[in-house]
Design brief:
Blueprint: E1 2-11, H1 17-26, E2 39-48, E3 51-60, H2 70-75, E4 79-85, H3 89-106, E5 111-117, H4 127-134, E6 140-143, H5 152-161
Parallel strand pairs: 1-3, 1-4, 4-5, 5-6
Antiparallel strand pairs: 2-3
Length: 189
């Protein structure tokens, strides 16, 4: 079975959205990459359990001048990945603003994943603050480093498992049959 999943990456400029995607797609990191202009689109199939998920990844520009383009991409998305730079608290605040935009475009059932990137740098965003925001909203969180590759596979596994139509495998518990209980009023015919 094949499922299509449109994933939009959102966040401030310089948070490493493109670098995360390149690490996943190409297993490479380029410290001298060009800033995303507008929107870039990539696709990659992934196996999740016994299903194939075709990830359609939309890489958005973080600059203010491109913000007006992004809502139309959010509207058609299945999952929004909100990226912030762990070494820059301002970008966490911007990720929260992007979450508000996602809710206004997709409604309260929008699936979001909050990602603190650049965890190879000194973390300036307290984990308590992240969890205080994410947990009440049932938003999955991850910390990654596109530079080192740390947790990038885990992030895309989270994304794939959240894709619509993915049936989660659950443990099946087979109840033990009750022991034969002799009835008191049985006939001995």
């Amino acid at each position: 079975m094949t499922t299509k999943c449109k994933v939009v990456f959102l966040g401030a400029a310089g948070t490493g959205k493109t670098s995360l995607i390149n690490r996943f797609m190409l297993n490479s990191f380029d410290k001298d990459y060009s800033t995303t202009v507008g929107i870039d689109f990539l696709t990659k199939p992934i196996q999740v359990q016994d299903q194939t998920v075709n990830l359609q990844i939309w890489d958005t520009a973080g600059q203010e001048r491109f913000k007006s383009l992004v809502p139309s991409y959010i509207r058609g998305s299945d999952i929004a990945v909100l990226v912030y730079d762990v070494s820059d608290p301002r970008t966490f605040d911007e990720a929260i603003e992007w979450h508000k935009t996602v809710l206004s475009e997709r409604g309260n059932d929008a699936v979001c994943i909050l990602v603190g990137n650049k965890n190879d740098l000194e973390n300036q965003v307290k984990q308590e603050k992240v969890l205080e925001f994410a947990q009440p909203k049932s938003i999955a969180t991850a910390e990654t480093s596109a530079k080192t590759g740390q947790n990038v596979s885990h992030l895309f596994k989270l994304i794939s498992e959240a894709a619509p139509g993915i049936v989660k495998q659950k443990e099946i518990v087979i109840a033990q049959p009750e022991e034969n209980i002799e009835q008191e009023n049985k006939c001995n015919c």
